[in-house]
Amino acid sequence: MKWLETKARVRWSEVDSQSIVYYGNYFLYFDLGREYVAEKVELEYLTEEFDVITLDTTAKYRQPARYGDELIIRTRMIHPSPAEMASPMGFTFQFEYQILKSQGKLLLAEGTSRHALKDKITHKLYVKVPKEKKEKFLSVFEIYK
């Protein structure tokens, strides 16, 4: 599956006294990557129909990012299983991330996250995704190629 990339610069508020990015802030970078993907597929995070729920996350830290570093945030979707694709309740959205330092393309961190949609009226998790949204979302990652 295709990686989508966006960039961010490490800000002062994201580092500790040694100018190293605080580990929890990598999840904010993952979120930036996910929002970039949502923007590309024209899927709004804030709607009257559903909420995006985070089910679980992981992160592995390889090298520290520092104040002022320009980062490349790479995001891609993990292909849903055939059972998830066929489910009348829809499927969870799973993502992989890589955070690289722009200079030298050094891998700094990598991680995953899994998300579902929750219907705002029924409060049911894993709501069925409208077909046109599902197809648009999956097409960005060239899953049906």
Automatic annotation (TrEMBL):
Coiled-coil stretches noted in the UniProt entry, renumbered to this chain: none
A Pfam family annotated for this UniProt entry: 4HBT_2
Keywords annotated in UniProt: Hydrolase, Plasmid
GO MF terms held by the record: fatty acyl-CoA hydrolase activity
Family: Belongs to the 4-hydroxybenzoyl-CoA thioesterase family.
PANTHER family from the UniProt entry: 4-HYDROXYBENZOYL-COA THIOESTERASE FAMILY MEMBER, NOVEL THIOESTERASE SUPERFAMILY DOMAIN AND SAPOSIN A-TYPE DOMAIN CONTAINING PROTEIN (0610012H03RIK)
Protein name: Thioesterase family protein
Organism: Priestia megaterium (strain ATCC 12872 / QMB1551)
